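pasting for ref
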Amino acid sequence: PRPASTDPWFDAPALTAGDTPGTLLRHRPVTVQVYGVQPGNVTAHQLMYVTTDFDGSRTVATGILMIPEDGTPPQDRRLIGYSEANDSLGPDCMPSTQWTGGNQTDPSLFSALGPVAQMFGRGWAVMMSDTANDGDTAPNGFSIGRFSGPATLDGLRAAIALPEAGLAPDVPAGIFGIAGGGVAAGFAAEMAGSYAPELNLVGTVLQAMVVDSATFERTADGGIGAGFVFANSLGFAAKYPEIDLDAELTPLGRAAADRFHSTCQGLYLMFPFVPLSALYVGGRPADNPVFARAYAENTLGTRPDEVPNAPVLITSCRDDFLVPYEDARNLGDFWRDHGADVEFDPSVCGVGDILTDPVRVEVARV
């Protein structure tokens, strides 16, 4: 497959006054290919559409819509906004690339296979937003929920607008998100009622999402997932202009950031146990006012007037060694206190389980 960053199709057009969030700018049919397999009963389209950036400005995102060709009548079709566990900063890393044969080593692709297969088995269409333009070589602000949340909702709008998809304007839609995708899905659930009230959103499933980047840093800094902690902070620096990485990073941090900015998250797995104090001159970004403000603006469960308007299932792990379960519990309780319908069903994914019984972990997660 051709990398998105060298494919002219991903060159974003200049937006006009009529290009409102959710506007479908362009689309093309593509072939789904995963690990060399091309399923014969799934059709797919890459979409480019308008969305809203964290500062309220309009921007462009891409994504892929996949529809099982199983004879499901149009009136019975369902639509899922699937937000992968993708924390990549570089281009050519997102679902548009993964599900058409590129970036096949990404763990977020592997972790999506089970749930997506189940969705296809039920005849559901699956829309995966790239939460960015996957062809854009600038670092991706994947960790900024007030950008990725709208991108998820506008991806659903764009999928519905695609004539070839045959989706009804009021098609029942769900949201599914895990890890980095859980941030996007969580904000999409929070914002749906005010941002995209026309969507017929019927439910959301969230797992292992970063609720508050400050507590995420304090929990996982210097641990086995240190690379993802660092990447999370770089995602904020990618979009917040007041964060001056040249001034904030140590020489080691600048070298690591240069590498992270141009690669996919598989690399971050190779960066364990490196403390943020070795990468940032001031130590943890959460203790730095410029980062702290950005983190606070993108913390879930802080706005009483923004709570999910459809049922939510939170399946985060009680013994998660990266993201504190207490944050997920407090988030659900906050939503409940302000009128949302929330259920908890903690999953199994502690480090001991992963190392000793990975099959149990995968079965429990799916």
